[in-house]
Amino acid sequence: MGNTNRLRAKITGTGMCVPDQVITNDDLAQRMDTSDEWIRQRSGIQERRWIRPGETPADLGKQAIEQACEQAGCEPGDIDCLLLATLSSQHDFPGSSFFVHEALDMGEIPCMDLRAQCSGFLYALSIADSLVIAGKFKRVLVIGCEVHSTGIDVSTRGRDVAVLFGDGAGAVIVEPQEDEGDEAGIIEVRMHAEGKHARRLWIEAPTSANTPVRITHEMIDDARIFPQMEGRYVFKHAVTRMPEVLLETLNATSHKLEDVNLFLFHQANLRINEAVAQRLELSEDRLFNNIQKYGNCSAASIPMLLAETTRDGRLKPGHLISMTAFGSGFTWASALVRW
Ligand code: COA
Predict the structure, then answer these.
(1) Least crowded by CB within 10 Å, which of 107, 109, 190, 227?
(2) Which of 227, 221, 299, 309 is nearest to 264 (CA)?
(3) Strands 201-202 vs 228-229: parallel, antiparallel or unpaired
(4) Are 87 and 191 spatial neighbours (Cβ–Cβ below 8 Å)?
(5) Which residue has a Cα nearest atom 5 of ligand 1?
(6) 138 and 23 in one domain?
(7) What pLDDT is attached to residue 183?
(8) Average pLDDT of the chain?
């Protein structure tokens, strides 16, 4: 692989897939006590996508990967490592990546699930960056893949969480490239976690810490199988940690806030992103959000933003982009990339 000091890991292809079933806020209002006005006002979300019976996370992942390969000018068979970030695995044991691997007939390449929730894509991107720079792999696929719709409480009891989430997958291909002085590629990624907040945004059961079995009828009846969130607590931490890690990442490089062409934030809540932008005094024209259409797709949200902005012309070669996420764990991370 030559002189590793001169290698950079570059994102060469992006892709996304969402199910075709659109669920509007009014659709949700027919299932629970909520309203279009409440959801839009608090989160900015207008609609989200849900899978139909028979569809799987692997189906979404497969299509996102095929799109990413097409943009990168390669075939799924050219990928030599698959990293999948999710908090809604197709099966807890062994995860989701293996079913994507199967769907794309990926031979014997290694694959794994990575658990860092809504920051999972940036965590996986950081690992892909290290693997590629170290010369371990030539074409690493990083995918965020979530199906939330089958794991939320769509009754009034679960309304605070259920209205926020959607299904989707987003994928990127990461390849090595000689740095020719234009720094094209992944420049810096910074990650953090604070496990003491894990119970503030989590799913309590099933849990291997419960004896003698992980799940009981009582746990189901008490709705402990659905996500629980202390909304305001999460909100407060997100609007503090996101600017913090974004600036930490920039400061680790020679770049400044004003050099960044496009800021892509995890799509948890439009109000969180507005608050982050306000704290950093970022102008509207350097931001892009798509939560209005898709809701919170957790680990898939940032690669979905990349897939849309590379296709609609917002993201152009040479642009400097800053991507930042916050999620359950708590986890938070930021990446600076020259496109
Ligand atoms: N529809 C209508 N009313 C709802 C509702 C819904 N979907 N969900 C909650 N409510 C009600 C509550 O019961 C509460 O009623 P009460 O005042 O009678 O008790 C009221 O609305 C306000 O609830 P509250 O939780 O205080 O609202 P909020 O202003 O904090 O907004 C969130 C709630 C979830 C939108 C907000 O806290 C948030 O976005 N948090 C961060 C979420 C997030 O980003 N999670 C993922 C991180 S990766």
Answers:
(1) 107
(2) 309
(3) antiparallel
(4) no
(5) 160
(6) yes
(7) 86
(8) 96
Q: Which of 159, 176, 193 is the last residue of a domain?
A: 176
User: What domain range is 318 assigned to?
Assistant: 185-338
261 is catalytic: no
* Same domain membership, residue 205 and residue 113: no
Residue 286 lies in a domain: yes
Question: Is a pLDDT exceeding 60 seen at residue 184?
Answer: yes
Distance 334 CA to ligand 1 centre (A): 26
Q: Are residues 15 and 158 in the same domain?
A: yes
Could you give the percent of the chain with pLDDT greater than 90?
Answer: 96
CB atoms within 10 A of CB 178: 14
- The pLDDT, as a whole number, for residue 5 is 57
Ligand 1 pocket, residue 161 CB under 6 Å: no
Number of structural domains (the chain) is 2
Quick one: angle between helices 270-280 and 231-251, nearest 10?
Answer: 40
Atom 29 of ligand 1, residue of closest alpha carbon: 42
Angstrom distances, CA of residue 153 to CA of 222, 224, 227: 11, 10, 8
My answer on whether 116 and 192 are in the same domain is no
- Using one digit for the tens of pLDDT, what is the confidence trace for 65-91? 999 999 999 999 999 999 999 999 999
Q: Is 296 a catalytic residue?
A: yes
Cβ-proximal residues to 211 (8 Å cutoff; 6+ apart), any chain = none
Q: One of 25, 69, 296, 297 is an active-site residue; which one?
A: 296
Residues 153 and 237 in one domain: no
Distance 302 CA to ligand 1 centre (A): 23
Choose the catalytic residue: 118, 269, 273, 289.
118
- Whether residues 37 and 97 share a domain: the answer is yes
User: With bands split at pLDDT 50, 70 and 90, how would you rate the model's confidence at 1?
Assistant: very low
Say if pTM beats, i.e. exceeds, 0.85: yes
Ligand 1 contacts CB of residue 158 (under 6 A):
no
Which pLDDT belongs to residue 3? 40
Say how many Å lie between the CA of residue 230 and the centre of ligand 1: 9
204 lines ligand 1 (CB under 6 A): no
In a domain? residue 322: yes
